[in-house]
Amino acid sequence: MKIKDAKKPSFPWFGMDIGGTLVKLVYFEPIDISAEEEQEEVESLKSIRKYLTSNVAYGSTGIRDTHLELKNHTLLGRRGNLHFIRFPTHDLPTFIQMGHDKNFSTLHTVLCATGGGAYKFEQEFRTIGNLQLHKKDELDCLVKGLLYIDSPSFNGQAECYYYENAMEPEKCRKMPYNLEDPYPLLVVNIGSGVSILAVYSKDNYKRVSGTSLGGGTFLGLCSLLTGCDSFEEALEMASKGDSTRADKLVKDIYGGHYERFDLPGWAVASSFGNMIHKEKRDAVSKEDLARATLVTITNNIGWIAKMCAVSEKIDRVVFVGNFLRVNTLSMKLLSDALKYWSHGQQKALFLEHEGYFGAVGALLGLLDVD
Amino acid sequence: MSAFPWFGMDIGGTLVKLVYFEPKDITAEEEQEEVENLKSIRKYLTSNVAYGSTGIRDVHLELKDLTLCGRKGNLHFIRFPTQDMSAFIQMGRDKHFSSLHTTLCATGGGAYKFEPDFREMADLQLLKLDELDCLIKGVLYIDSVKFNGHSECYYFENPTDPVQCQKKPYNLENPYPLLLVNIGSGVSILAVYSKDNYKRVTGTSLGGGTFLGLCCLLTGCSTFEEALEMATRGESTTVDKLVRDIYGGDYERFGLPGWAVASSFGNMMCKEKRESICKEDLARATLVTITNNIGSITRMCALNENIDRVVFVGNFLRINTLSMKLLAYAMDYWSKGQLKALFLEHEGYFGSVGALLELLNPT
C-alpha cells in the first residue's frame, strides 16, 4: 500500500479498548523522527511520548507490558515501537483527567476507541477532556487486530502457539503454530464476559454466541469465596488448590466411570457439588475454592466453545482475552478439554498479545479516519 | 408377574428418589397369605409422610387409582438425601427385605456405587438400569397416564409478568422430537426421536449441585429450601455486571439489551460493591447464573438438533418457580419465540418410575 501519498493522521497514534474491567491502550512510538520533525514537535506531544516510554508503571494501577513490545515496527509508513499498556476501567476518570491536564485535546488528534466504555464514557471524554472519541465496534476491532498482529510476527517469533501434552507436567510444551491460513477460525474472547466469533475471511465474521460466565465471574466469585483482592492473587491461590475437594466427580456418584455415555470417573459431574455437605465445606481450603472456580469457569467456556466449533464445522479455536493473561492453568485446561471432548478433532490455539487485539484494531482504525 | 413390593429407585448424586406402588385391590385371600414384613413395609410407607429425619413423601404427587400390570393401586413418591443411604440399607436389613425375594430395580449412579453395600449389608441384589433409559421411559409413561385426570405437562405464559404469568397445560401427545434437559446435581441433555431412539447430546457440570454448593459457601445456608427462599428476596443485578454497566446502554450491534448480563458476579471484583450487597442478592445471582447458563447451553443444543420443544426436569426445579420462569423467558426471548420451554409435575421422579417399569415389563 502506498502510504506516502495518503494523508497520515497526526501523532500521537493511540488505539484504546475500554472493556468491562480493563482499559487496553496501544501506543505507537515513532523512532524515525527527522531533525526537522523534532523541531516542529509540540511540547505536549513530546512530554506524552517521554512519559509513556520512560515508565513501565503509571499512577498506582497502570502497567506497560514491555515483554509484548513490538520493536521496529512499520505502521502507515512510519517506523516505531508498538507499546501495550493497561489499567483498570475503574481508573478511567483519572486517565481522562490526565488527558485534560496534559492538554491532549490541543493536539487535534483523533482518539480511536472501542469496547463498551467507548460508548459509556464518550460524554466524559468530551466534557472533561475536551476529546472526541472515534467509536469503533469491539468485535470488528478484535478481528482486525488479531489478523494484523499475527502477520508481522512477534519480533521474529510466532504470535500464535498451542500446548502439546497439556496435562502432563513433564511433557507439556508450548509450540509455535503457523496461522498463515487462518480461515475459518473460531475466536473465543474471554474478557469480563465471553464472545464467540466465527471468522470466515478478513471481512466476514459473525458473533456465534457468548456466555456471561467469564473472567469477571472468576474474579468476582474468587473475591467472595477467598477474600482475595486481585486477579494475580486469585490465580496464585488457584495454582495451589485442589478442585476435586469442592467438585462432585462422576466417580463420587457412580463409584467409577459412567461407561454407557463415555464419562470417565475423573470428569466433574457437579461443579462445587460437594459443597452441599457441611463436613466437606469445613475441610476445603481457600486455595481449593479458587481452583474450583477457575476450573468451573474455564471448563464451561471450553464446553461452549467446543459446541460452537462443532455446529460451525470449524476445528481451530483461538482463545484470547485477558482472562488468559499469566493464566497457563486455564490455557492448559482448555487445550486438554478441547482435545479430549472432540476426540482430537479440535485444536486450542493462543496468541501472545492476548487481550490487546481490540486496542490494536482501534489503532488501525486511524487509517479509516478522514 | 413380579412379587410385591413393587419399587423403583433412582440413586442420584444428591437425592434418592423412590416410587412405591401400593396395591388397593388386595383380595381377602391374598391378604391372608401376605407375609408379615410385606404388610409392615406397606403400612410404614403409606401411613407416614416423613421417614426418619430426612425422608419425605411428596403426597401432592401421589397418583391415585392407577392400573399397573393388571393391578390397581396408588403410586407414591418418596425422596431422601443420598447421604442417608446407609441408614436406608440398614432399614432394609432390619425389615428383612431380602426374605421377600423381590427384585430391587435401581438406577442412577448410586445403583453402581452402592451395589456392594446393598449386597453385603442387606443381602439384596440390585437390578441396575441406565439412568437416562429410565428417565425417558418414566417421562413417556407418566405423561400418558395423566396426573389424576390433569395434565402432567405445562408451560408458562407471560413468564416475566408477575400479574399476567399463568401456568397452562400442554398436550404432549405427539412428543417427538423432544429435547429433554435433566437438571439434577449435574445436567444431561437428551434428544428424543421416538420411544426407543434417543441420544445424550451433551451435559454440563454446572447444575443443581453447583447452585446449592455455591449458595452454602456464599450465604451460609444449609438447605435447598433455604437457598431458594433467600434467592426470592434478593436482587442479582447489583452482583452481576450488565451490558449497560459496560456500554452505558444496549450493545445494539449484536442485539444485546442493556439489561442482559455481560459478566455474572462481575461486580464482585470491586470491594465497595461487595460490601454493599446482601446474602439474598448472592443467592439470587447464583440462581440466575446457573439457570441462565443451562438455558444458554440448551438453546445451542436445540438449534443444533433442530428441535423446538424443550422439557426441563430434575429436582433443581422442585418448588423453584423462579428458575422455571427464567428458563421459560430465556428460551422464548433469545430464540425470538421459536423455542418453547415445557415442564412436568413429577420433576425429578422419572428415573425411578422408569426403574419400576423395568421391573414390571422387563426389556
From TrEMBL, chain A:
Entry keyword Kinase: yes
Entry keyword set: Kinase, Transferase
UniProt KW Coiled coil keyword: no
Pfam families given in the database record: Fumble
An MF annotation (GO) of this entry: kinase activity
Name of this chain's protein: Pantothenate kinase 3
Lineage: Eukaryota, Metazoa, Chordata, Craniata, Vertebrata
Automatic annotation (TrEMBL), chain B:
InterPro entries recorded: ATPase_NBD (IPR043129), Type_II_PanK (IPR004567)
Any single Pfam family the record assigns to this protein: Fumble
Top-level taxonomic group: Eukaryota
Segment forming the signal sequence: none
Matches recorded under PANTHER family: PANTOTHENATE KINASE (PTHR12280), PANTOTHENATE KINASE 2, MITOCHONDRIAL (PTHR12280:SF25)
NCBIfam families: panK_eukar (TIGR00555)
Designated name of the protein: Pantothenate kinase 3-like
